Amino acid sequence: MTNTNNSEKPRNEKPRNEKLRNKLKNPFKFGSIVDNPYFTNRVEELEQIKSILDSDVHLIMMSPRRYGKTSLIMKAIKEINRPVILLDMQVVTSEVDFAEQLLKKIHKLFPYEKIKTFLKSFRIVPTVLINPISDEINISFNSNKSGDIALEDVLNLINKLSSKSKRLIVVFDEFQAIRKIEKRMENRLRSILQHHTDINYVFLGSQESLIRDIFENNKSPFYHFGYLFPLSKIPESDFQTYLQKRLKNISKRYIEISEDILKFSKKHPYYTQQLAFSVWEELIHEEINNPVEIAIGKIASYHDVDFERMWNTLNRTDMKILIGLATSKNLPLSDIFLQNYNIGSSSTAYSSIMKLTREGLVNKSQKGYEIEDPFFRQWIIQKRNF
Ligand SMILES: Nc1ncnc2c1ncn2[C@@H]1O[C@H](COP(=O)(O)OP(=O)(O)OP(=O)(O)O)[C@@H](O)[C@H]1O
Ligand SMILES: [Mg+2]
Questions:
Q1: Domain CATH code at residue 120
Q2: Which one of 111, 270, 326, 350 has the fewest CB atoms closer than 10 angstroms to its CB?
Q3: What is the pLDDT of residue 3?
Q4: How far is the CA of 284 from the centre of ligand 2 (A)?
Q5: Distance of alpha carbon 57 from alpha carbon 75, whole angstroms
Q6: Backbone CA torsion sign across 162, 163, 165, 169
């Protein structure tokens, strides 16, 4: 398009966008914990969580992967200004490792002088090396035996350090991973934690079936240990407002674009942010007609190798179920679905869905089941169409 009048330059001409790029920062964020200005809504959840943390009841929060559990709990804790220790159970390898990692976190919260005397009274005294320059600490129990004793001493230390006026909050992230660490650990942990009265424990989990088994099965040591809080997606209208506000200054079609983003991401917090981030990058470069489509294509092709590798690990029934979920609106256990995708019986379909759900490839949704990653869904659709 030619236009000689500078003041009337159309938006999609580069110089204007380059100017904009220098002025603006991509307002979306994905992949790590979010807080303001990236955090949206969750007003009711925040209030409820803060109120539980103010009580003597422990909290168990579960949702599928990347719905925003860690972001939400950290925001609530920040708002009530309480000391927190967060331990990701996925990276714990043994009871001793658990004890060592917790001790390191304790040291970050409390000066060494304060914990020194307690350490001396441990039944297995740890070796503590402090780097005098960086103040980094290295703690080791020098033994892989007696992990239960190390664990008990460290947890009881946390209890001693917590006080009524400044109650500690201890968050175990991805708690279901405890089932992969040591067999008796769940039992031991429960028998220690139940005596701690000045701490709020928070258990986060992303595998619903495991979390339910840990906290809802009456044979499990953590049976009914706290308040079970299932976290849902961010409501559509709030996400819509959030997107529109951030896209308004780079596109005239911001309303339509926001709708398209949510339609594709199905309001999944992480994927919505991921797509919005890429759409913004497209738009800041140039105001194109189909930024959502372009961004989806780019993200899907970026993950092509991963998707292909994942696909090749699946058995035939899993593949059929995923193809069906990607391309049809019918419920996966309905006769028509089984017939259309040539799946032998509803019990075969059911066990495949359960397996795919456990592995995090499929999530339970209001309307049945959906493929967790919308880009993977798109990848399947594209492969089938070619
Ligand atoms: N309240 C929110 N507002 C906007 N975006 C959010 C919000 N909560 C989460 N997100 C998006 O989802 C992503 C994942 O958030 P977070 O890591 O807190 O989730 P999680 O449930 O703890 O994930 P995981 O299962 O990997 O532990 C964030 O990086 C962000 O893009
Ligand atoms: Mg998390």
A1: 3.40.50.300
A2: 111
A3: 38
A4: 30
A5: 19
A6: positive
